[in-house]
Amino acid sequence: MSDNQFSSRIGFILAAAGSAIGLGAIWKFPYIAGISGGGAFFFMFVIFTISLGLPLLLGEFIIGRKTGKDAIEAYSTIAPGTKWNLIGYLGNVTVFILLSFYSVIGGWILIYIFKGITGGLTDLSPQGYGELLGSVSGDPLLSIIAHLLFIVLNILVISKGVQSGIERASKIMMPALFVIFIIIIARSLSLENAYAGVEFLFKPDFTKITSQSILFALGQAFFTLSLGVSGMVTYSAYLPKNTNINSSAISIVSMNLFIIILSGLAIFPGVFSFGLKPDQGPALLFNVLPNVFSRIPFGTLFFIAFLVLFLFAALTSSFSMLEIIVNSITKGDNTKRNKWSWIIGLSIFAFGIPSALSFGALSDFTILGKTFFDLADFMVSNFLMPLGALLISIFLPLKMKKEELFSELSNPKPIKKWLFNTWYIIIKYIAPIAIIIVFLDSLGAFNFLKK
Prior knowledge:
With 451 residues, the protein is mostly helical. The protein has one domain: Hydantoin permease. It has 18 helices and no strands. Helix 3 crosses helix 16 (372-399), helix 6 packs across helix 13 (283-294) and helix 7 crosses helix 14 (299-330). The model has no long low-confidence stretch (mean pLDDT 83). Keywords: Membrane, Symport, Transmembrane, Transmembrane helix, Transport.
C-alpha cells in the first residue's frame, strides 16, 4: 500500500480525530463552558455537534474520498472549469495563518513542560502562576524559540508522509492522550467536593441558557471538528474507495465528544474542589489548573502529565494544518514532501513571529485595535473558517447531484433513504443558515442580544 494512504481505518480515525481534538477541545471548550452555564451549554453543544457538525464532516469526507485529490484539486475535479477550487485555496490560507499563532500557544506548552521537569512550577503562589504566564509569553527570545520548536516537531512528522508520519504519530499520541486523561481524572474525582464539578458539567440548568451561550455552542460545534478548512477533505483523500465514511464520521464525532467529556472531568472537579471560579476564560489552563494541582500530593507531576496530554492534542491537530498545505503543493509526490515540509513550515514560523512577540515586544503595536496574535485569531475564527464551512455546505448540493451524493454515502454499505434525505436537507438548507448565523454573530451582528 502506498504511503500516500492510511494503512487502516483505525489509523485514519485516530488521525482525523486527532485533527479535531486540539486546543479547541481541551482548552477552549472548558473555558467557554465555564462562562456559558456548564451543563446547559454542554447539552446544546452535543445536540449541535450531532445534528450539524456530523453532516458537514460527512460532506468533506465525500469530497475527499470521491476525488482522492488534495484540498484544491478536489473541488476542480468535481466542478471543472469553475472557481470553486478557491475553497481549497481559502483553506490553505486559513490553516497557514491559524498554525502561525496556534504554534505560539504550542510553544508555551513546551516551555511549561520544561519548567515543570526542571522544578520551575514548584511552590509558586496563586499570583506567581499568573506572573509566570506573563513572563513566558512576554519573553521575546523564549517565545520565538518555543514557537520554532513546535513548528519543527510538525515538520519532522509531516515530512515522513501519511503512514510513516501522521498515522504512526497519531497511533502513539492518541492512545497516550486517553491514558493520561484517565490518570488525571481518577485523581481529580478523588478530591473533596469533586462532585460539584461533575454536576456543573452534566446537570443542565436551562435557566442559564442565553442567546450568547446558544451562539457559542453552535459555533463551537462547527469548529471543534476542524470544519471549514478542507482538512477532512485532505485526510479522506488518503482513504481507499471502499472505506465506510459514515461509520468513520460517527466514530470521530463520538471520540471528539468523549475527549471533551474527559477534559471537563479532568478540570472542573478540581476547580470546584478548591473553590475556584470556572469562568476564568483562557487563563483556565495556565493560571487556574496549576493552582489546583499545586494543592494536591504530587501535584506538579500531575500537571506535567496534563501538559504532555495537552501537547499531544495540540500536535495531532496541527499536523493536519501543515499537511493540508504540503499535500496541495506536492500533489502526492513524496520525493518533494521533505523539501516542502521545511519550506512551508519555516515560512509559517516566520509569519508567526509577530504573534509570538504580541505579548512582549510588540504588545503595544496594534492593527484595528488588535495585536498581531489577536488579529490572526479574529481573522481565522470569525471570518475565514465560517466562510469556508459556508462555501462547502453550498458546494455539495450545488455541484453534486443528489443521486451521486446518495451513491457516495451508500458505499460500501447502503444507507437508509430517510437518513440520506435528512442529511441532504441539513446540508442544503439548515447548515448554511446556521453557519450564516454564527458568521454574523462572530462579526458582532447580534451584540444587542448579549446586553
